[in-house]
Structure formats: structure tokens, C-alpha cells
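Quick board copy: two proteins, each given as sequence then C-alpha cells.
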Amino acid sequence: MTPIEANKAGAISNPTTIAIVGDVHDQWNDADAHALQALNVDLALFVGDFGNEAIDIVRQIAAVSVPKAVILGNHDAWYTASRQNRKKCPYDHTKEDRVQQQLDALGGSHVGFGKLEVPQCNLTVVGARPFSWGGANWRYKRFYRERYNISSFADSTAKICASVDAARQDTLIFLGHNGPAGFGSQAHNICGRDWKRSGGDYGDPDFADAIAHAQQSNRHVALVTFGHMHHELRHDKTRLRERLVVDDYGTVYINGAQVPRVIEINSGRHRSFTLVTLQHGIVQTVRLVWVNNIDTIVSEEYLYGSTSKTTPPLDLVMNLG
């Protein structure tokens, strides 16, 4: 059944609103959770990098009452996956496993190499490879072998594809920490390597192959979202990274890595969220919004689905109620 057929059958009648929470990097507290609740979304997607194995923040994320799917990023295994960083670890690995503590805290909301069924929205969230650093080289060999019995990109693709094949809802959403390969090699591309002036495609090939498998299997992929590659570029301060692309299947890809996601200005602290509206399984609008301390949207920028694509920052006030 296609998304349109599902709608005709009455499976979905109301729009679905999704909040994407970009790389947190230690910027999360009760006010963020309250702001997310006030946005009145149907689902929240967290793209990872909560901190350097920041178990306390991950526990706060786990306690968020909004329905959610989470994937952990490379910083969430900072002192575990990398041999070099293990030498700098502030705790004893023989006594603690903070990666596992994060996974235990998140439970079924962590979708890395798995999935989350959201039947009330007719969505299945499929998770890509967790803890991804990005790029075409297979990194963290021992980590992935010991944790997931994964030894190659091909193994990883197969594991993600198994979740695709088992998905029970009509519409799929993919959630990764890093994005898929195949969207350009310039530094400003959605997964472009910006810390080297030569650029390069730093997307994940296994992620790209799993998405292709879903599309070629006639699964409807409405949305692919991820973070990791921050919007602000390392060497080019004249522009931002591409934050949204649409492929030939009509799938919308969103890079949610607005970093910092919390800013201080004269009027107070503002928190960013990317809001996606779906109707009949099709993305209608994508907005980057900033919410103030009284849970009011004070700025929004349309990335997709509006004739007016941008608004001046922090100039639009709309009470959430």
C-alpha cells in the first residue's frame, strides 16, 4: 500500500510533526525538554553526539516524554571506540562501560542497527550504523566487531537492510548520525568534508546502500535525517553547508547539525529544533526554529516547502500556547 492509498483507506488523516534535534554537544537540560514538549510534536529524532560519553545527558534524553528515536554518534563512544582516545579516558574501562550504560539508558529508543515502529504515525524509523565517524574508510574495527559482530561496510549494510525488510509501516524514515555518501564532494555539500580545503564526500557508503535497497524494494522513504557535519564550515565563513537535498525518488535528506544548538543573545537563551511536517507520508515543510525561555518560537527559517525560504534570524514571534 502506498502512502496515498493508506490515506484513502483512512490510515492517516492528520499531519505528522517531527522535531529533529541536532548534535547536542552537552547543550541539554530541563528547559530543552520543556521546549520540545511545548512544540507539541508527534515524534522527536535525536541524531547523537550528546557529549564525550556524557551518560548524564543521555539519561536526560532517555527521560524525555515525547515519543522519540535516538542514534548515538562518534562522540558518544569517544573514549571507547578510538584507540588513541582510550589513552585519554578519564575513567577505568575495566570498571565501567559508559557506551553500554548509554545504550541501556536509551533502551528501545536507540535505533542504531535497529528500528522503531511508530504505528500511530504509520512510520518506521530505521537506524543507520551508530557511532559513525564518517567517510569511506572502515574505522573502529575492533569496536564494531566486538559490539555488533560487524567487520565491513557490507556487513553494516546487510544489518541495516534487515531492519528495512522487517519494517511494518508504510512509510520509512532513516535516522543516522552521519549522512549517506553520494551527495557531492565539495566542502559545502550536505556531507562534504569541510576541515580540508580539498573537500571530499564524507558520507557513509553503507548508509547510502541501505537507503538504495529500501527504495529499489519499493519501500516509501519519506525522510533521511542525520547530523555530524556541522552547518558552519571550517574554512569558508561566507556560507553555510547545504542542509537539505531531495533525491530522484522524492526522498528528503536533512542535515540537522545546527551547532551550537543553543545560543545566548540579549533577549536570553534560544534553542534550535528542525521541524518537519508530513502529510500522507510526504514531507510538506521543513523549518529550522529557535525557541526562547518561555517556549515561544522567536525565529523560523523555511528550508523546504515555502515560497519564502528564509526569514531574518530571531525576528518572528509565534506563541506556542
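And the next:
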Amino acid sequence: MARQRKLTPERKALIQSLLSHYKPEDAQDVQAMLRDLLGDTIQQMLEAEMDDHLGYSKYDYKNKHTDDSRNGYSPKTVTSSAGDIPIDVPRDRKGDFEPQSVKKNQTDISNIEDQVLSMYAKGMTTRDISAHLQSIYGVDASAEMISRMTDRILPIAKEWQNRPLAKKYAVVFMDAVHFNVRQDGRTVKKAVYVAIGTRLDGHREVLGLWVGGNESAKYWVGVLNEIRNRGTEDIFIISVDGLTGFADAISAVYPKAEVQRCIVHQIRYTTKFVSYKDINAFMNDLKVSISS
């Protein structure tokens, strides 16, 4: 049973006050409320920065000890995780105010963690990401901080990999995608095996991802047993590309499944025996044969 989230009396009172003021009726209204609050918060942060820059708060002329002063605002729209937010950036007469909460030329204030995970997924190292954030956004984030951010995705990925599956699949395709990955300080190429299943209602989904190592019948039995333990009792057709030991593993775990070689790989294999000058005519005839 999920544990109920505890709220302090102060936070509960704040939430009740917000709900009473905004009166949201659905998730879209809540999103609009959050966008409004975020905009007000950023605005107050900018005002506080201007107070600190000038050394006195607005209208507090008694404590003014500078020949600089406020000079209105510049309208600006920034993109956030809650949507686009219009703000007014304070200006000073000397023009040397440099806000830090929303920097000049910065138009995206969405979650830094989302950007970190996106860069990490594209293969950037933690040090590359740290340097990129400093260069583009002026954000100081150490490689260790980046590692802590990326580590947060691991439980989510593990939960997805272990999620329950359908009882039956009409077809399951298994193929490999090769990636260059960092391992022990050097770049190596590794195969990631992807299983895509088509349910009886026609819906397709990725069943899981497995990083290749020493593939053998024992390895594939482990993969198929994982799929079975997640709820899949039967697979009608399994399409593979002659992976070593896979046919034996299928016979052991899903003995009723029919094994077919992937058509794309069959075509690639067949064309090896056709001369280059005949390949176009051969492919046209082959397409007719396959589609008939």
C-alpha cells in the first residue's frame, strides 16, 4: 500500500489558501495555477536582485547611496516545465544590471535535470554535460552533481524493465542495436537487444532491453524466462536473426512458438549471392514474391 505523503500544517494551510483563491477544477487548471505562481516567484526574485544591485529597495530613497536608479522594465517570455511565462525584467539607468535568476538572453528555465538526462541519453559524459551547462546556461554543476542526477533515472528504468507484460503476444521481434559506450575509460561497441511484441489487439510495445555480453543458449533462456516471469505465458511467432543459441532457448521456454527469421535479414542474406548488375531486377521480383 502506498504511503500517504505527509504535509506540515504550514504547507497544508498554504495549499488550502491557493485552492481557495484559484479554485482549480482539473489538472489543466492546476498547471495554470503553477505557471502563475512560478511567474510571480521569478518576478519577486528579479526585484530582489535589483534591490541588491542598487543597494536600496524600491521607494526607499532614504537609504539610496548611488547615482544609479530603476528604469522601468523589459517584457520577456520564458519557457518553463509549466509552459510559457511572461515576466518583466527590471532595468537600471546605467544598464549594468545582470540578473542571475533569469540571465540575459536566457529564454528556457525548464528543469535542468530534464536537460541533463537528455544529454546523458545522447552519450555525453558527465564532464561534457557540466561544461555544456556552464557554457550555455551559466550553471555551475560538477560532474559529481551530474552523476547524482543521472543516477535518479536508474530506479525508473529498472521499474520499466520489470513491469508486467501481456499474457499472450502474436509476434515478438528480437533484434540488436549497436551503440558506442564508455566502459573503463574507453569507448567500446556493445549490442543492445530489443524485444518488440505485438499483442492480440494489434498494439505494439517494447518488452525490454538487454545489453549483450557472452550470448549463448543459457543467456537467451534467462532473457525469455524474464519475459515469462513478467506474465507472458505464450508467444505465437518469434522473429529473430539466427542469434546463437536463441532457437534452443525458445524451445525450452516457449516450445509452442514458431521461429521465423526476420524478413529484412533474409533479404540482406539473399542479395549476397546476386551480382550487382542484377540486384535491382532481383529486388523488384523479390518484393512481388514477398507481398503476394
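Board note added afterward: The two ends are 54 Å apart (CA to CA).
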